[in-house]
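Teaching assistant here, posting this on the class forum so everyone can see the example we discussed in section. The complex has two components, and the goal was to see what a joint structure prediction looks like when all of them are supplied at once.
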Amino acid sequence: MSELLEKAKKAKAITSELAVKTSEQKNDALRRISMQLLLEKDYIISENEKDIEVGKKNGFNESLIDRLRLTEDRIKDMAEALILLVELNDPVGEVLASWARPNGLKMKQIRVPLGVVGMVYEARPNVTVDASSLCLKTGNAVILRGSSSAIHSNIAIVNVIHHALEQSEIPADAVQLLEDTSRETAAQMFKLNEYFDVLIPRGGAGLIKTVVENSTIPVLETGVGNCHIYIDGSASKDMAINIAINAKTQRPSVCNAAETILLHEEWAKNHLEDLIKALLDKKVEIRGDEKVRGIHPEIKEAIEEDWGTEFLDLIVSMKIVENVDEAIAHINKYGSLHSEAIISETAENVERFFNYVDAAALYHNASTRFTDGFEFGFGAEIGISTQKLHARGPMGLPTLTSTKYIVTGTGQVR
Amino acid sequence: MSELLEKAKKAKAITSELAVKTSEQKNDALRRISMQLLLEKDYIISENEKDIEVGKKNGFNESLIDRLRLTEDRIKDMAEALILLVELNDPVGEVLASWARPNGLKMKQIRVPLGVVGMVYEARPNVTVDASSLCLKTGNAVILRGSSSAIHSNIAIVNVIHHALEQSEIPADAVQLLEDTSRETAAQMFKLNEYFDVLIPRGGAGLIKTVVENSTIPVLETGVGNCHIYIDGSASKDMAINIAINAKTQRPSVCNAAETILLHEEWAKNHLEDLIKALLDKKVEIRGDEKVRGIHPEIKEAIEEDWGTEFLDLIVSMKIVENVDEAIAHINKYGSLHSEAIISETAENVERFFNYVDAAALYHNASTRFTDGFEFGFGAEIGISTQKLHARGPMGLPTLTSTKYIVTGTGQVR
């Protein structure tokens, strides 16, 4: 039997056992993993070093190497995150609703784990700990399919997790890593509906597209963020510039960073100069539409493709619009249903924006950078959903659960 | 442009307009459709007659013809269902949660429509009205892809719906029928992620499998029900027989009917005789395991395939088990995660069953036939989900919605 099938079967086989583990049993396991990561940090770092060497040989750039690298500090962060996770409420077993029917049937809807989660991700070994611990807390079995370029790190981390689980009441098979990272095996995995309840891709647009297009298993689509800041005519100058700069530059490589700034023509008339100066001070490359370039011909032209691009870099496209409706139409045409902000002091425009923009999170007078499970107060995050089914926006622990109806009768028939 | 693409674009174009229609505007449209169906009943029936003639020529059996047939009574039932739908609470706009963050951000999660729903179904013209009205009530645009064998009926019904919508404040494009029912066009539809937010297949196992395996759009999987009745050692004889007979025979062609009866050996020792007699009285064909046939050699043998089959007919497979754990293991191996019942007076066995059986709805001392949106008190049902994401079990109106986070700030940045 292939490694994939063997591990998938093992995962499936323990789902009902995992579903009834108590919060204390699961928390005990999380605490042990936290300690074990610290105890075995040297082993993890030395295995990680192997991946980094291979990465360098393969010409990874500094940012890819940085993503891949595990340091003592980063391992400490992981260990701390596990302890914070212990503190969070366990959603499993929560009664979501209970009612009685006229025929005397008593109905109850309770939260249960999803079952087997397939996590598909890139060369970020921190996701290995992150996904394992969130799945463990919610009583799910997880099969991790990471990148071949992080394979030594991932094997080491999963070994450490197993060392911890072996001392706990959670079976070690709750967390399994696919050591075979071939595309063929991934393609097989995406069709194993019999064993997997959900696939969660985490990574760039290419990875997510591959999973969405090739999976017959339900997918929780995460991530791509082509976010906009719309500055309305009545927006305060300082607030608007401050939010635009924050959304674009505070961490340009993430999905909730802004990619396009839309300006009401009235606001642009008075403040475009200052906004452009602030962006240039932060070394942002601006790509403007005709109206922007009518005022500032030195600015590079935004081509059609730019409006739909998640730059993930210090680049911003900029367009002047006549009114909030033109902004809404632009966002609904090019946005990725992630996070969209309006900066305005005009209540009716804010209401229009909230009503008509289709996205997971809409902001009034705040930065799009807040779309994040921790910033939302969820205490954890398995990703940010840009699809509409099951979960939308930052996904906390309840996202990793399904429900069950429990019906108690006294002999009722139809 | 193809019919599919043209209609998909039209549907997508009106989603934000539909999302802000008031409950009263939507209810007014539902009332008008209800009236229009009655007013144009002769037109619908005469168009339906064409489908029936073709069906007869093509050798449809009586049960298929019956599903296809629209009579004055059935049209009246549809019209009545629309009026009942008016009474139901509109989930759109409902505030699911609201909270504030330490930084002063005010968060709110509200229900919004899904957007564009693709309904894929078989030769049941009543689904045309049903799906259209549920989507309309929840502010969704729907594209209906019915069966070619119901095409005249479907065109007539959608014409009637359009006549009603033209008098209402809901755009007629909210409900569109694909007149091209070719497989090639369906295959294209299943990949139009840009336009469709969800596909809902309704029909037999084959149809559902086709959609699940070929769609890149999220699917709400419905329907297949291989349901079990487990009669525990302590079960009351009369209650157990009554429930087993009801679950098997009251309407054998539906997904929540039972397909297998599992018997505790103690109960079988005392009451097998009576159960078999009751089933035979109802003309049920029994297929037994070795133990059943050890007592009743005249009973047909259940082969491996029988345990996994949704008979949808007066056939039942029957197995004697040693204890509740053997019953649970059998159900988790062969069940379709739909509805499972335990008949028992032993609290700890019931608890074990509720904890360890993986299914959308679990019953104690009641028939599996209650898994139904109306029986659950939801007042409507778009199908019964046998998957774990988004919705599980009977799907009422809220299933046709997603959510949006609305965040209000005073200039917050990270």
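For the discussion questions: Chain B has two domains: 3-222+395-408, 227-370. Residues 227-370 of chain B form a domain with the Aldehyde Dehydrogenase; Chain A, domain 2 fold (CATH 3.40.309.10). Think about how each of these relates to the inputs above.
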